[in-house]
Amino acid sequence: MTEGRPSAAGSAPLWERDAEIATVAQALDALCADQTSAGGLLVLRGEAGLGKTALLAETRRIAERRGCAVWSARGAETLRSVPFHVVRQLLQPALLSLLPEEAREYLGDWYDIAGPALGIADPQEGNADPQYVCDGLVAAVRRLARREWPLVLLLDDAHWADQETLRWLAAFAERLDDLSVLVVVARRPGEAGGDSARLLDAVAEAAGRSVTNLSALTPDATAGITRATLGRHADDAFCREVWAVTAGNPYDTVELLAKVQDSELQPVEAQAGELRALNRAARGGGLVDRLKGLGLEATRFAWAAAILGTGITVDMVARLATMDDELARHCADLLCTARILTKPDPAVGTEPIDDELEFVHPLIATAVYNSIPPGVCTAMHGVAAQIITQLGRGAAEAARHLLKVHPDDDEELVEQLREAAREHLAVGAPDAARRCLERALEEPPRPEVHAHVLYELGCATLLTNPAVTIDQLQSALGMRGLERDDRVDAVVRLSQALLHNDQLEEAVRTVEAEAARHEAGPVRMRLQAFQFMWEGIHGETVSPARSRRLAELASTCAGRDNAERALLILRGFDAMTHGESADVVAELCDRALVNGRLAPGLGWTDTEWGMELLMMLGSAYAYTDRLDRAESLFAEARRVYTSAGWRGGHLSLANAFLGLAYRRQGRLRDAESTLREGLVLAERVGRGLPLYWSSTCGLVDTLLARGRVEEAWSVAERYGFAPPYPSTIVLPDIRSVRGRLLLAVGRTGEGINELEAAEKTAASRGGHNPVLAPWSIDLAKALAGQDPARAAQLAADARRQAERFGTDTAIGEALRCAAALETGQRAVQLAARAVTYLEASPCQYEHAAARVEYGIAARSTAELNRALDLARACGAEGLVAQAREVLETGRGLH
Fold first, then answer.
1. Does the predicted model carry a pTM greater than 0.85?
2. 467: closest CA among 506, 441, 420?
3. Which segments of 356-429 does DSSP mark as H helices, in order?
4. Is 748 within 8 Å of 728 (Cβ atoms)?
5. What's the start-to-end Cα distance of the chain, in Å?
6. Which residue, 552, 528, 641, 631, is CA-closest to 129?
7. How far apart are CA 712 and CA 705, in angstroms?
8. DSSP 8-state secondary structure symbol assigned to residue 209
C-alpha cells in the first residue's frame, strides 16, 4: 500500500502507485538537473478508470513544485476526426500568450508551415504537405521547449487523439535524445486501430522500458479507500464486497462509495448486498437512468454537452439545446451536483473561461453520448454545424458535425464538405479532407458535380496514398461531368499515381487511350508526351520501335511550346539511355530550355507536366558530363520543394537525384548525406515504391564508391535492395549496382548472374549507355579469370559504345576496363590513356580511381601521391587505403 497513503477517497487512483510516482520523480530529476540533459518519454497504459489521469495530475503537481512549465492536452472520443485538435490544445495557450511578432520570431521559418495547423496563422496558397507540417510541428515544439525549459508535456487519452497529433507525437518521440523535455502519455490499450494504433505503437517503442502497465487495486487498498471515505467502522466483509463489485477499479470505487454516502448505506456486512445495485447506477445504463431522473431539461443539456465534446460553455449548450440562459444555468448546476459535469480545474492548463464545463470522466461522456437516441443525435449534430457556421468559425470546424448528419440529397451540405476539405488540405490534413469528400459522396452530389468530388478526393490523397488516388480518379473518369481540360488533368494525375504505385503499364495504357480520343493538337501532343515519358522510364520493355517513333515526332519540334519542349526532353533522355551521341543529347535538352532556364509552366511545382519530365532532363545532363547543369536543376528542385512545404515523394526524389549529381561529380560525402535524407523521406511515403528504390540504389552505389562495402551490404539488407525490382527505370542502373555489390562481398556467381540479366535488358531495349549502365565493364572484369575471351569481347564492345557516346567519362571508363584486362606495358599505356580522358571529365571519383590504377601499373610514387590527394578530396576511403598500402609497401615504386 502507498506510503503516506491518501487521506481521502479523492486520491484513490494514487493508492498503490508508489512505483509509478517514483518513476515520474526520477524522470523529473533528470530533466531539471541540466538544460542539456536528454529528454524523457513515459507511457502510462491501463484500462478505463485505473488512474491514468490522476497520475498525470500528480505529475503536474510534482513538476510545478520543481519550477517546470507544464502543458497538457487530452484526446476525446467524439473529436478524433478533428485534425490537430490535441496538439492545438497542447501548444495554443503558450503561443497565444505571445505577441504575433514574438511567435513568428520563435518559430522562424516554421511559422508559416506549423502556424496554420496550430490555428495561429492563415494558411498559404495551395495544399500543405502533411509531412512538412508534421516536421514543422516538431520544430515548433523544439524551439518552444528551449525557451520554456524545464518543460513537461502531458497527453491524456492518447488513444482518442486525432491522427495528425499522433503523427506529430510519434515523430517528436524519436527526436527527444537531444532535447530536454519530459513527455508523459496516458492511453488505454486496444482502443485505437489502423494508423492510430501503428503510431501509438511507435510512441511505445520509442519509450522502450518506460512503458508502465497499470494494475487494479488490491483488496487491502480498496479497504483503505473505503474506510478513508466512509469511516473506520466499515467492516471487512463490506470492504471485500466493494473490491469484488468494482474489480479494484479506482474510478468505480470512488463512484460507488459516493453512492453509498448519498444513500446513507451503513458500511457493514448486512448492507453489502446493496452494493451491486448501487454500482450499476454509477455507470453505463444506471448512469443514464440517473441522468433521466434529473429531468428532461437536464438530460437535454447533458446531451448537448456530449455533442459539443469540446468548448462546452453554458451559452453554447443553451444554443444547441434551445433553452434560455436561466434554465441552462439551472441544468448545469444539477449536473455538477450529480457529478456528471464539473468546472475545469484551474490548476490544469490555462485559466478556464466563464461558464466552461467538462465531463467528470470520459466514461461519463461516452455513456451520455451513446444514450442519445440516434435521430436526436443526428439532428443535434446538424444544429451544432449550423451554429458554428453562423458564428463564422469556418467549414472545417463544422465538418465534424456534418460528418454525422444522415445523407439527404443536400446540395448545400456537399458544398460545405468540399469547402471543409479544401480548408483541411490547406493546413496539411489530407485524411480529414478525405473523410469530408467521402461523406459528400454519400449525400450524393448532383450528377454534374459528382465527378468533380471524386476528382478532388483523388487529388487529396495523391501525396500520401497513390493507391487510393487511383480508385477515385478512375471512378471520376468513368462518369460524366469532367470537361475537356479537367478530364485531361485527371487522366494525367491518374497516370502519375499509377506510376508511383508501380503500375507503369497501366499508366501507359491510360494516357494512350485518352490520346486516341483527341484530334491532333496541343492536348493530344501533351498526352502523347506522357505516354512516351512513362514508356521511357519503363525498366524492362522499351523497344527500338518506340525510340524511332519518338525520334520522328521530336524531329518536328522546335521548342515553340511546352508540349514540344517535353518531347525534346523525352527524345534527349531516350538517346542518352541508348548511348547515342552525347552532343546530340545535350543539343536536344538545351533546345527544351528558354535562355538556359526552365520555361514558364514547366517548373518543378507546375502540375501540368509533373516532376518526372524534369528528372529526365537533369539525368540526361548528368550522364552526358553536363554535371553543372544537372546539379543546378536538382538543387533548384530541392529548394523549390522545401520552400513549398512538399516533404513527401517530391522532396525525396529531389534529394535522390541531387545525390546522383554529387556522386557523378565525385562529391561522395555530399552524395551520401543527401541520399540518406532522401531515403528517410521515401520511407515516410512507403517502402517498395519506385522513389524508394532511387534513394536506396544511389546510397549503395555511393557507399561502394567510398569503399565501405560492409555498410553498403547492410543498407541493401535493411532496405530490401534485391529482386524483384520495380517496373520503372532506376538511376543509377539497379542491376549494375546490385551486381557490383555482390561481386564486392565475394558472391561472384550471383554477381555475374545479375550483370548478365542487365545485359539481356539492354539487348531488349536496343543498346545502352556504358556510363549509365556499366554492367558490361563490371561483367568483363568479373569474367577476366574464368572466360578471358568473353571478357575481352565485352571490353571491346564497351569501348565501341563509349566512343559512340563520346564523353570523356565514357571513354575513360572503357579504357580503365581494357587496362584491367591487360598486363605489362600494354596495361600501363591503356591506364595512362584512361587518366588523360578522365582528367578532362567532371567525374572526379573516376579520375581518382584511374590515377590509383595507373600509379600501381606504372609503379609511380608521384602518380600514387596525386591519386591519394584526389581520393581524399572525393571522400573515397577505399581508394585512399589502396593507394596508401602500395605507397607504404613501396615495393618496385620509383
1. no
2. 506
3. 362-371, 374-390, 395-402, 411-426
4. no
5. 84
6. 641
7. 10
8. G
